[in-house]
Write a structure and sequence with these properties.
Layout: H1 3-17, E1 19-21, H2 22-28, H3 33-45, E2 50-52, E3 55-57, H4 70-75, H5 78-90, E4 97-100, H6 104-109, E5 119-122, H7 125-133, E6 137-140, E7 144-146, E8 151-153, H8 155-161, E9 166-172, E10 175-177, E11 181-184, H9 187-199, E12 200-206, E13 218-221, E14 227-230, H10 236-239, E15 244-246
Parallel strand pairs: 4-5, 4-9, 5-6, 9-12, 12-14, 14-15
Antiparallel strand pairs: 1-3, 2-3, 7-8, 10-11, 11-13
């Protein structure tokens, strides 16, 4: 395929999906990873998309109206997410009753959990399976399964969550904005996050640097409702937050 034609197809995919990974592009195009990296760099430098670690996002990604499927999100900014996850897991003690939100960064935490005595409650189906396989005590919230994020949502899930009182908890967010707070694309998932925040004594939001300045349709909490753990902050207005842990400055 000619380079210009490949550029057109890459831009079409990014506009259609909001985000693509290098692995997805390798599966589609008969081109090497180094070639595709150069393609993304060229398109980024020409202002046609935003190159991120492991892939690329559309220029309109600052306002995210749809959830990107888990396999895609898992590979974007993976190293940053792993570092955030490791730090988050280090905060869990043996007597903790922990809420673990569905999501890619919270999912990465599972491999770093050291204590076997803590109890975990999650609305992530895959999280529950992995926690159980690791020999940890886990409670899976019941309700409606949202396939794109592998999260359990709905009225049954919210009722069950309201019964619990967590010592600490870890949630993800699609957007973190100084005016719109923590946000996510789906109203049902936002409701779960909102209730969970109220039931957690020490709530944490895990997010990589790409989430700052982003807005999704539904706000589930203000920025002062949880401590933010991130790899770095590129936007100066967010460095002023009092409730933020920036790992490259820790």
């Amino acid at each position: 395929m000619l380079t210009e034609k490949r550029f057109e197809e890459i831009l079409r995919l990014v506009d259609e999906k909001g985000m693509v990974t290098l692995q997805e592009l390798k599966n589609i195009f008969a081109a090497s990873e180094s070639t595709l990296r150069r393609d993304l760099t060229t398109l980024h430098n020409s202002g046609k998309l935003v190159k991120v670690f492991g892939g690329a996002m559309s220029l309109d990604a600052h306002y995210r109206t749809k959830d990107i499927e888990v396999p895609t999100r898992r590979e974007v900014n993976r190293e940053e997410k792993l570092r955030i996850a490791e730090y988050g897991a280090s905060l869990i003690g043996p007597d903790d009753f922990v809420y673990l939100d569905a999501g890619t960064t919270t999912g990465y935490m599972i491999d770093f959990i050291q204590t076997k005595q803590a109890t975990f409650v999650t609305n992530g189906v895959n999280h529950a399976q992995r926690l159980a396989a690791a020999g940890l005590h886990v409670i899976l919230i019941g309700g409606e399964l949202k396939a794109s994020t592998e999260a359990v949502v709905g009225s049954e899930a919210t009722i069950q969550l309201q019964k619990y009182h967590f010592t600490l908890g870890f949630l993800g967010a699609n957007g973190i904005h100084q005016h719109s707070g923590f946000s996510t694309p789906d109203n049902n998932e936002a409701m779960i996050k909102q209730i969970a925040l109220k039931q957690i004594r020490r709530p944490y939001i895990l997010c990589d640097h790409s989430k700052f300045g982003q807005i999704s349709p539904v706000t589930f909490g203000d920025l002062d409702h949880a401590v933010i753990i991130t790899d770095r902050v590129d936007k100066p207005e967010y460095k002023k937050l009092e409730n933020i842990i920036i790992l490259n400055e820790a």
